[in-house]
# Entry
Amino acid sequence: MGSKGRVAIAVALLAAAAGGWYYFKEHKQQAATKLTLYGNVDIREVELGFRVPGRITEVLVDEGDKVTKGQRLAVLDAEPYREAIALAEARVQMAEANFAKFEKGSRPQEVQVAQARVTEAEAAFHNAQIEYDRQLGTFKTGATTATARDAAQARRDQTAASLAAAREALALAAEGFRSEDISQSRAELAAAVAQRRQAETQLGDTELFAPSDGTVLARIREVGSIVTMGQPVYSLSLRDPVYVRAYVGETDLGKLAPGTTVQVATDSSNKRYEGQIGYISPRAEFTPKSVETTDLRTDLVYRLRIVVDNADEGLRQGMPVTIDVPLSELARR
# Structure
C-alpha cells in the first residue's frame, strides 16, 4: 500500500472518530437536558343510556357530531310516565284528605250525634231501672212472678251496657283520633308525595343529555327501538380531560413527581402540547407492547398519567406520543 492509501485510511479513521465523539457528545448533552418517555393518548369514553326503559321517539345526533354539555341527544315516549304522574297526584290528594280528617278530628255534628245517643241511652236505662224496681217490689209481695222480675233485670242490664257504650263513643268523638292514627296518616301522605316526585324524576329521565363536551363515536339505537334501563344508545368520546398514559423506568422514577410539567409531541404534527404528571403508579409492570420505547419490552416500568392542558383534535385515542421532561423540571427533584 502506498503512502497515499495510508493517508486516506488515516483520514477516514480520524473522521469516524470525530463523528463518534460528536454523536456521543450531542447524545449525552441531550440526555442531560431532558428525560424522554413514551406513551399513548388516553381519551375517556362513556356509553350513554336512559335511566328508565321505553321506546325511543327521537335520535337527534349522529356519529361524528360534536356535542356540548347539556345538549339533548335522544328522547323516549313520555306518555306512560305522564300517566304515572297523574296516578301519583291522585294518590297524594287522597292521602292529604285522609290526613286532614285525622288531624282535625271529629266534626261537631258527629259529637252532637254521639251526645244524642247518650241521652237516648240514659232515658232507656232510667225507664228500665224503674221497671225493674217495680217488678222487684211486687215480687216481694207475691203479686208477680220470678220470670217477670228476671226479665226486667235483664232489660235494665242491657240498657246499662248500651249507655256505657254510648258514653265511650261520645268520649272518642270529643277526643278525636289517636296519635298513632295521625302519625300513620302523616306517613302515608309523605309516601304519596315521594312517589309523585319519583314519577316526575322518571319523566325527566325520558330525555337523554350529554354529560360533557365531546364527539359521538357511535349511534347504537334508532327511533322505535325499545330500550331497557341503562342500555347504551350512544358512545361518546369526552373532549376534556385528555390524558396520556406513559411509562418510566425505575432508574428515572426518582426524577419525577406529581405536578411535574412535561411536553407532549406526536409524529403527525410539529405541535407540542403542555401537560402535567397527575399520577404515578406505586406498582411496577411490564412495558406494554403498544408503547414505542427504546428499552427492552421485558423491563419493569411504572405507569404515569399525564393531564394535557391544551389538547385539541390532533390528539386521538391510542395515538403514540413522545413525552419530554425539561431539565428545569428535573433539576427540582
User: Anything to note?
Assistant: DSSP finds seven helices and twelve strands in the chain. Confidence is low (pLDDT under 50) at residues 21-31. The two ends are 58 Å apart (CA to CA).
